[in-house]
Structure formats: C-alpha cells, structure tokens
Design goal:
Layout: E1 3-10, H1 18-26, E2 35-48, E3 51-61, H2 65-72, E4 78-80, E5 98-101, H3 105-116, E6 121-124, H4 130-143, H5 176-185, H6 202-218, E7 222-224, E8 229-235, E9 238-244, E10 248-251, E11 255-257, H7 264-272, E12 277-279, E13 282-291, H8 292-300, E14 315-318, E15 323-331, E16 334-338, E17 348-352, E18 360-369, H9 381-396, E19 403-407, H10 408-412, E20 427-429, H11 438-454, E21 464-469, E22 476-478, E23 492-494, H12 505-523
Parallel strand pairs: 5-6, 5-11, 6-7, 11-23, 19-20
Antiparallel strand pairs: 1-3, 1-4, 2-3, 8-9, 9-10, 12-22, 13-18, 13-21, 14-15, 15-18, 16-17, 19-21
Length: 525
C-alpha cells in the first residue's frame, strides 16, 4: 500500500530529483528504499515573499510497510493511501446510437466515457473542425469578419479551445483523475496530473482536441460538423428524433444536450418546445490587463525566473447591496481576445498559450447579476440582458468588432492615462461605466480599490480595462432529474456549462462523464 508525504519543499530552480532524497532523509532511509516515488501535487508558497518555495506532495512504497508505518505513522504529513483499482466498464449495446449535441468538454468527454462502455455516439457540432476553426478566428481577429458558426464560441473543442486551458475545479469528483488521464493520453502535458493549478494552454489544447477526435473516430463515433440542432421530435413525453439544419432528421431516444453557454438560438428553440428552464445568476464586467512583470513583482516580491508566471484570485463583497466583485479566468502571460458569436455584438475573453509568454496578464473583473436584474421573468431574460450590453459595447467600439477600452485610473476616477490592449481587431477609448448597469460599474470601482489594498500596485497607470465580459457562465439552467434527464422530456439529458451544470473545462468534462454513466446504467444488460 503506498504512502503519501506532504510539504516537501524546494527552492525555485532546484532539481526535482532531490525530492526523493529529501523525503528519505526525513525517515532516516536511503533514497533507494523509497520505491515507486511519484509527485502527486506541486504548488507555490509565496506567503513569506520574497522568499518563495515550491511545495510538493508525493507518494511512495517501501518493502516493509507494516514496520515503516509502526515507526513513522505518527507524523502529521504522512498517511497511507488505498491502492487504486482500475475502472471496469460493463459493455452495453443499443440499436440506436446516443446523440450528443456539442463538441466542447462536456460533449467530448461524454462521448469518450460512452466509448469505454462500448456505446457508439453520434456527435453533432454546429461549428467546424479545430484546424478550420482556428483560421476563421484568426481572420476575425485580423479583419473583423465574424463567422457566426465558426468562432471562439462555436466549433470543435468548444469555447475552452480559445482560453488558458485551466483544469482547476472545486469539485471533489472521483472521476477527476480519469479525465486528466484522458487529456494526457491525447497529448496534454503529464504535469497536469499533479500541478496545483494545471493548465494546457490554447496552443497545446488544439492539438489535444484533434487527437481526441481521432480517438473517438477509432472507437466508432460518428462526428458531424456544420450540423446545428434545430428541432426535437417527441411523442407522449418521449424523445423520438432530432432535426438538424432545419431539414435532416435522425432517430434518437437518448440525446445529450451539451450545447455550451452561447447557443442562444438553441435556447430559443428549446423554449418553444416547452423544455423546463429557468433564468439563473451569472456575472458581467470588464477585462483588466497589466504587464506580467508587474504581477510577478507584486505576488513574488522579486523576479523569480524559475517560477511560473504569477496569477491572482481577488474578491470584494458589498454586504449592503449584496453585490460581489471578483477576478475570473485569470490568464498569466495571455491575451485579451474578441469572443463574439453574434453579429453586431462585442464580448471579450482571455486566453494564454502553454508557455504563457505574451508579457501581459489579464483577468475578468466581474460583478454578480441576478434574475431580478433582468427585463422579464421568462428563462431567456438573462440571454437578452447579455445581448443588450454586448450591443452597447459594439456601438461604443465604432463597429468592426473593435472593443471599448479605458485606462484603469480613469475608470475609477483617480487620474488619467493612456490605454494599450492586446485585443484585436482593435480598441477605441470609451467611458466604460456607461456601457454597464450602474450597479455593476459602482461595484467594479469599489472592488478595484479593494484589490489594490490586497495587491499593492494593482491600481496603476499601466493597467487597461476592455469591455464587455458577459459570458462568464450560462444565463439559464435547463432542469434535469436525478437521472440527469429532463423532467419534461424522457431521453433528453441537459449537460455541461450550457445547461447550467458546470463552469469551466474540468467541471464540464466531469458533467459529461456523469451523464454518460447515467445513460450506461439505463442501457446495461
């Protein structure tokens, strides 16, 4: 049985091969006595900056387990780990394939998990394969020529393909290791298995998505690109078929709806079909961009070339208004990117390559909004709320999908300064407070001032704000029962971020796995 040992530390730049020596020394043993030594977790401790340490958790085995535990079992940072058993999947069969709508993390990992059960999946994706999609997005960023069906939101890999590729997740889900192993299998860096804040980067993630596609095809999946879900065929509360591109029909009794949080036309179609949905809270705001070197100095105290690019997570709460301002999707060494998916609307997001080497740090600064803030009480009220502010930003940018931008000091009323953003196709100076609800702009100003007290130097003439950020999560939830099926339609499985059950790559992938397991339970012999 393996042992787990916490709080091994190294100086930045030290060889990780020393870890086994340090661990063995704690037990008065030679390094050779610790068998199958493996790093399980790696993080950064900057609490006593400028002294910064790398902190590790590792596992190992020894020949005499009973004797070792008897001698050292009282150590607070040592524990015995149960032996991991491989997952076994019962083989299932079904006359009709399971249909999955959407090739983001939820849809892809649902298909992978179904393949492990021997269940064939047909995946419908309204966008294009990742290789073509990358060209369409590059054209949009260069010329402002938006393809509504192939953009940062739609296409193979989902919105996460143009992101930092973060794999952090607050869920304590037993399938987390399985998802990480699949990502590594298809080309993600092996370090994601133990990094405290793992990420893949948009450049590496595109290669992973393409390899994952090849794996699904090999397993017998049927992948259909440029195929948009446009209708459902039902009778007596049971799904019978799906319609795509208005004309094509495919028999289907099990449909996984992993549409992503930006499929607004699909939301409208589902509303017309009387699916049970409800508006839900989300958050909107702006993107802030700093020099990465400034964030490194604030977080580490001095330059540390051997350390990862510094990030941050900041929160501010106004108890009187019940509004919160917080940083979201922080991208060290990244870029602010145009993420529109509808004509005449501007929305921003952030992304990073694996190397996080742009020299700039960006993060969303957002404020919570609630259904009572929306105009209307129907499930689509939050969608219209997003569209309203995205249209306002488009107009302020002067057209061509240029984004409105402003110096951070000018936004909070503490001075003036220039603005410089990595956003393409370009930015136009604007009063950003006028492009947001008043309560959002006020809470943002309060939050930014608060953040500077926590990270001295955050408020600086060197920082630029760009707007607007509205796609933090789905604006509605498609309700489902304990078996993950819609209460209004047997055979329909709302899934992932677009259905309101996830908030990022890992949580969406895990929800896809959860839905696949529920389907397999039903189809098991």
């Amino acid at each position: 049985m393996p042992f787990l040992f916490r709080n091994l530390t190294l100086q930045p730049g030290e060889d990780e091969g020393r870890l086994v020596v340090l661990a063995a020394r704690c037990f008065g043993l030679d390094a050779a006595a610790l068998l199958q030594f493996r790093i399980l977790r790696k993080g950064v401790d900057a609490r006593k900056k400028p002294r910064v340490l790398l902190v590790y958790t590792a596992s190992f085995c020894v020949a005499d387990e009973a004797g070792f535990w008897k001698k050292h079992g009282g150590l607070p940072n040592l524990e015995q780990l149960p032996v991991e058993t491989p997952q076994l999947f019962s083989r299932c069969s079904t006359a009709e394939p399971v249909v999955i709508v959407g090739m983001g993390p939820a849809g892809l990992f649902c298909a992978l998990r179904l393949a492990a059960y021997g269940i064939a999946a047909t995946i419908l994706e309204r966008g294009k394969p990742v290789e073509e999609r990358v060209k369409d997005v590059a054209r949009f960023w260069r010329d402002g020529a938006l393809d509504p069906e192939s953009n940062v939101q739609f296409g193979e890999g989902g919105a996460g393909t143009f992101s930092d590729g973060k794999l952090t997740c607050r869920l304590r889900d037993p399938n987390t290791g399985w998802v990480l192993d699949q990502l590594i299998r298809f080309g993600a860096p092996p370090e994601i298995r133990y990094q405290a804040k793992p990420h893949v980067g948009t450049d590496r993630l595109r290669r992973v998505v393409a390899a994952l596609r090849a794996g699904l095809l090999e397993s017998g999946a049927d992948l259909r690109f440029s195929t948009c879900l446009t209708g459902l065929v039902c009778s007596n509360g049971q799904l019978r078929a799906v319609r795509s591109n208005q004309v094509d029909e495919l028999a289907c009794r099990h449909l996984v709806l992993a549409i992503g949080h930006s499929a607004r036309d699909t939301y409208a179609m589902l509303s017309r079909q009387n699916l049970v949905m409800e508006a839900k809270p989300f958050a909107i705001g702006l993107r802030v961009e700093h020099p990465q070197g400034l964030i490194d100095r604030i977080q580490y105290g001095k330059p540390h070339p051997a350390l990862p690019k510094a990030d941050y997570a900041l929160t501010y709460n106004n108890d009187l208004t019940r509004r919160s301002c917080y940083s979201f999707c922080m991208c060290p060494g990244g870029l602010v990117v145009a993420s529109s998916s509808e004509a005449g609307m501007v929305v921003v997001n952030g992304m990073s390559n694996l190397g996080r080497d742009s020299g700039l740090a960006n993060s969303a600064l957002v404020v919570n909004v609630r259904p009572e803030d929306f105009d209307g009480k129907d499930p689509l009220a939050g969608v219209r709320f997003q569209q309203q502010w995205e249209r306002t930003a488009f107009a302020a940018g002067g057209g061509g999908y240029c984004a409105p931008a402003q110096n951070l000091l000018a936004f909070i009323g503490q001075g003036t300064g220039g603005y410089c953003s990595s956003y393409r196709p370009g930015v136009v100076e604007a009063d950003l407070a006028s492009l947001l609800p008043e309560y959002v702009a006020t809470t943002l100003r309060e939050g930014i001032v608060s953040f500077d007290r926590k990270m001295k130097g955050f408020v600086t003439r060197e920082a630029t704000l760009t707007g607007v950020e509205t796609r933090t999560s789905a604006p509605l939830r498609i309700l489902r029962n304990e078996d993950c099926q819609s209460p209004a339609l047997q055979g329909l499985y709302p899934c992932g971020e677009g259905a309101g059950y996830a908030g990022g790559i890992m949580s969406a992938a895990l929800d896809g796995v959860r839905v696949a397991d529920k389907i397999a339970e039903q189809l098991a012999p």
